[in-house]
Amino acid sequence: MAFNNIPELDSMHLDALREIGNIGSGNAATSLASMLNTTVDIEVPSISLVNYENVSQYLGGKNRRVVGLALGLEGDIEGVMLHVVQRQFVSRIINAFYPKQINTLDDIDFMDLSAVKETSNITTATYVNSLASLTGLFINITPPNEYVDTVEHVLEEVSSRFDSIGQKVIYIDENLYIAGTEIKSSMILILQMDSLHKLFERMGIPV
Question: For the chain, which end, N or C, has fewer CB atoms within 10 Å of the first or last residue's CB respectively?
Fold first, then answer.
């Protein structure tokens, strides 16, 4: 079926998006395990199409403080990959490098944020590279923008910095197990409509 906007995607298109999510999350877990020198397992991620204005509900509410890393996507497709993590993820990553008690995100300093940023940058780039390898598309990654703020403000900042924000986004909800400790991670893929068309064409899905 031809489609003009994301709500018109059928089960075939959604299955293709799930394949991308599964491959990307698996490769990201492998990269994370190598970086942290520990075991990292991941459940099959839950992938949903979500209104951008409703993403805050999936992230625990608009007032929850989070760390966000946004990478711009350029080349054959254009958009944004936004990685959002919460205190437990941040604490686990920081303590993989050095011991520090993280009770709230207000406890993190520049060095702490650098460690989280490096980790998030690697896992997010792994997702994008998996997407490029799967489709044969050339995708360039722009320098990341990082945020430590409420969910509402992070989403506002991303939408104000990138002109590719669409009404619907692809939300990837992950459960990771780092050395047996369960933590959550959220990837949000935001693509322009023509980029989504290219993506499906390369995967052999009618558009």
Answer: N
